[in-house]
Specification:
Blueprint lengths: L11 E2 L6 E2 L2 H12 L4 E2 L6 E2 L2 H12 L4 E2 L6 E2 L2 H12 L4 E2 L6 E2 L2 H12 L4 E2 L6 E2 L2 H12 L4 E2 L6 E2 L2 H12 L4 E2 L6 E2 L2 H12 L4 E2 L6 E2 L2 H12 L4 E2 L6 E2 L2 H12 L4 E2 L6 E2 L2 H12 L4 E2 L6 E2 L2 H12 L4 E2 L6 E2 L2 H18 L1
Antiparallel strand pairs: 1-2, 3-4, 5-6, 7-8, 9-10, 11-12, 13-14, 15-16, 17-18, 19-20, 21-22, 23-24
GO molecular function: DNA-binding transcription factor activity; RNA polymerase II cis-regulatory region sequence-specific DNA binding; zinc ion binding
Main location: nucleus
Keywords: DNA-binding, Metal-binding, Nucleus, Repeat, Transcription, Transcription regulation, Zinc, Zinc-finger
């Protein structure tokens, strides 16, 4: 009787990092991490990939193919992983908890990004200018500034983008698609960041804290803007008149004074506006909508800024300090009015 043959798989060990593989194909793919080899090239835009599966997924950006369908809402996806992530919107599943604050997330990537709020870590650095980012996607989009490369073009308007996700977001301006729906108020959003920021209106979450005053914000951009009230920094300069601004949005709004542009039309009264946000605020005068509610007394407001000011009547918070006499105020407008008294007194004393 012949002895039974035992099938053994040969181990393939990487000489650079010591990692071992049972399959030769996996070993070859792994080696490309070290060599940087990308043998699979897209014949549409020339982008190259280390794995054939990544090329196939990428090509769906150009073809528009979305073979993975959600059984709940019929939405389709180009990647299976995107479908899996989407399904959690329906199930509400959030299996990834933050060990710092207990907040839970539906995706591991969202938890990883959230952790950086606590650590302040920005692991993605631009090799051109040294600027660091907490997300790899932000770095990739930033790098397009230096390279000028815009491989992804919209077939509707021919506008080109550095990154496929930017193209996908842009395409929603044509289709009107808003796939992210708030379960609290049914408001819908075209982009994930806008959806996450909106949810904080309901939850009251303010993860970004000013280390000067302790004031907290729901968005990192709002913290950055607030910190300029302490530093006096105004990095945005109007090329027309030299006026400087602490916020880019303020500069953008100011530029329309010079151009006279008013592209946003109210379909109820035909009034024109320079900014989309101004149109949205104006439309509430017709609809009576007051989406911002105080969690202390249930009073509602049409503007988020009005709710913020109102909340200070409950907290007694006075975050705006005069650098001349140390008086403090609830609102920035009150501080500005107060500072004018110092200015007038200085003129009269001369």
């Amino acid at each position: 009787m012949e002895p039974k043959k035992i099938c053994t798989r040969e181990k393939h060990e990487c000489k650079l990092c010591g990692k071992s593989f049972s399959r030769n194909t996996n070993f070859i793919q792994h080696q490309r991490i070290h060599t940087g080899e990308k043998p699979y090239e897209c014949n549409e835009c020339g982008k190259a990939f280390s794995e054939s599966t990544n090329l196939i997924q990428h090509q769906r950006v150009h073809t528009g193919e979305k073979p993975y369908k959600c059984s709940k809402c019929e939405k389709t996806f180009s990647h299976w992983s995107s479908l899996r992530n989407h399904e959690r919107i329906h199930t509400g599943e959030k299996p990834y908890p933050c060990n710092e604050c207990g907040k839970t997330f539906s995706h591991i990537s969202a938890l990883t990004q959230h952790h950086r709020i606590h650590t302040g870590k920005k692991p993605y650095a631009c090799i051109e200018c040294g600027k660091t980012f907490s997300r790899s996607t932000h770095l990739i989009e930033h790098q397009g500034i230096h390279s000028g490369e815009k491989s992804y073009q919209c077939k509707k308007c021919r506008k080109a983008f550095c990154h496929s996700t930017s193209l996908i977001r842009h395409q929603r301006t044509h289709t009107g698609e808003r796939p992210y729906k708030c379960t609290k108020c049914r408001k819908a959003f075209s982009h994930t960041p806008a959806f996450i920021q909106h949810q904080r209106i309901h939850t009251g979450e303010k993860p970004y804290e000013c280390n000067e005053w302790g004031k907290a914000f729901s968005q990192s951009a709002h913290l950055t803007e607030h910190q300029r009230s302490h530093t006096g920094e105004k990095p945005y300069v109007c090329k027309e008149c030299g006026k400087t601004f602490s916020r880019n949005t303020h500069l953008t709004e100011h530029l329309k004074i010079h151009s006279g542009e008013k592209p946003y039309l109210c379909n109820l009264c035909q009034k024109l506006f320079c900014y989309r946000t101004s149109l949205v605020r104006h439309q509430r005068t017709h609809t009576g909508e007051k989406p911002y509610q105080c969690d202390e007394c249930a009073k509602s407001f049409s503007l988020s800024s009005a709710l913020t000011k109102h909340k200070q009547t409950h907290t007694g918070e006075k975050p705006y300090k005069c650098n001349k006499c140390s008086d403090v105020f609830c609102h920035s407008t009150s501080l500005i009015q107060h500072q004018r008294t110092h200015f007038r007194n200085e003129i009269l004393s001369k």
